Model the fold of this input.
Amino acid sequence: MAKFTISSCSFPFILLLFPFYSLTLTLIAKPISSSSLKPITNNPNFDSEIALLGDAADGGSYVNLTRASASSSGLVLRRKAFKLVEANLSNPASFSSELVFSITPGNGDGIMVVFAAGDLGSRFSGKGLFGLDGEKRFLGIEFDTEMNHNVNDVNANHVGVNVGSFVSVTVGNVSDLGLVLNSGEKMKSWIDYDASSKRLEIRLSKMGEPRPYNPIVAYGVDLMAMWKDKDVNVGISSSNGNGSSSQISSVYFWSFRLRNVPRMHSLPVNPRDYLDDKHGEGSRLHKRMACPLSILAGIIFMTGCGALVSFVVLFLWAIVANRHTVFPPEVLPAEFPVKPSPTDFRYEKISVVVEEDADAEAEADGVKK
Done:
């Protein structure tokens, strides 16, 4: 074990460095960020990596994103970033998210599930729509409860998809589902992104009802092209507007998970060929030479089978055709007499005459005399 000694000459030098050493320890002991980042503890409905920013507060079994005061905003942030695609850009990931929320009556911006590359927590300003004033690099799924003509909202009860802007690229009318976002009732939403089809789907229903088959909003977007291999943060943000609104947005449950689907490789028809291919160029050359011979053998075999089938068909046709052929008698040559058929027999009466010689007659006459 190494021993360190302090000489009398070096001691004053250490005293001079002590203030800087103490300052270094103090900086290390302080949090990395001085923002109001508050972790959620002992809440089974949220992951341990969830943190609160702004006016977001843990209520025990739920989180209030906003307070009942004007210009209130809050963010529930998943501190652990994720990559949609690895550095080799060969295996894009899909993701799914589920959340249960409620929005009290009144005017307000509602809530938005937001994805952004980089450190979203440090860029959360708490001002503007959803507290993201000035943010341009984001994907948002908003559950909007305000009719804002500046962003072309269709009504005050819709779900929209925002890409780099608060002007929705596509909108679904929640009224068509018979629901009202700011009714104060608990609602559940499913957000799914499939990387293979580049399709984003959002479903919504009242809490306790089954997952809908059809999404209320579906939109095609290539998130891999947008983010590539950058770290992405995801969170849920809310704001209640700049007026006198007292709308409160609450989140009761939130889960987020990635789905990495490996690429599927087709297997060869003959696994032996795949194994033999590993032995080197010799086996590949052998297969290239054997391939034309196999094709030629197949052609010869098919030709022989075709000839055999043709012969059998012609033979059977000849037998069947000859059984039904009738040759008229008048057209046959004379040297080939026609034999009468069994139905041509005739019966004729035959007279038999018996002649006796003269001696027998004379003898007969003598006897008579």
Observations:
- The helical segments are 11-29, 120-123, 223-227, 271-276, 281-323, 358-368.
- Residues 30-260 form a domain with the Jelly Rolls fold (CATH 2.60.120.200).
